Amino acid sequence: MNPECLSLVDLHRDVAFVLRKMADDKGLRFSGRVEQGLVEVVSDCLKLREIALNLGTNAVKYTRSGSVGLRFARHGAECWMLEVDDTGPGIPLQSREKIFEDFQRLPETGTGQPGAGLGLAIVRSLVQLLKGRIELESVIGSGTSFRVILPMHYACCSCCGSNANSPPPDLDKKHAQARKTQLKIPDDAHKSSR
Ligand SMILES: Nc1ncnc2c1ncn2[C@@H]1O[C@H](COP(=O)(O)OP(=O)(O)O)[C@@H](O)[C@H]1O
Ligand SMILES: [Mg+2]
């Protein structure tokens, strides 16, 4: 784990850039949104990116027409939600657990599309590592929505050195201070410390 203070706006922009291009190439509409005020979280940026790209790639791959979306929004006081939805074929009720297992591909949707059946198994492991959970809503013939619910503050944060299970109340202040400190470090010093 490599928890850090990260910008959800930047992460969304980065992933949306890739997904929009994939959707365009297939003639699908892409919609992206970050809820206003949802700015920073403490989490692992690369893992979040991998989750969003895996779910987003599936959404594009398995949707023949219509749209795919990537939305970041608040979820209660302490969590946020990464949602990927599509207007694809939907996932049958009896397969909604199975698709998260290694090498499982559904004949209803997977046939004719490239893939190894590992993407969702990886997503599930990453979500567990980030102390989140994943939910799935799907209507056959209408589409699917994957929601990953994640804590705003991953419990162990390297920039404040906290190992507590829940963040101290002044964590936001500490993060702000940590960022200020990082800004003062000259580029060269930053590079040599890696
Ligand atoms: N958005 C989706 N809509 C319909 N089916 C999906 C969707 N995402 C995943 N699936 C089904 O779940 C299976 C497993 O997905 P995944 O683990 O990402 O493997 P892969 O994409 O390599 O087949 C896919 O083969 C497909 O049958
Ligand atoms: Mg996949």
Written account of the structure:
The chain has 194 residues and is α+β, with helices and mostly antiparallel strands. It has one domain: Histidine kinase-like ATPase, C-terminal domain (Heat Shock Protein 90, 2-Layer Sandwich). It is 36% helix and 24% strand. It contains six helices and seven strands. It has helices at residues 8-25, 45-61, 107-110, 119-129, 171-184, 187-192, and strands at residues 4-7, 29-34, 40-43, 67-75, 79-86, 133-139, 143-151. The strands form two sheets. The protein has a five-stranded mixed sheet with strand order 2-4-5-7-6, covered by helices on one side. Strands 1-3 form a two-stranded antiparallel ribbon. Strand 4 and strand 5 form a beta hairpin. Helix 1 packs parallel to helix 2 and helix 2 (45-61) runs antiparallel to helix 4. The two termini are 16 Å apart. The model is unreliable at 157-194 (pLDDT under 50). The structure holds adenosine-5'-diphosphate and magnesium ion.
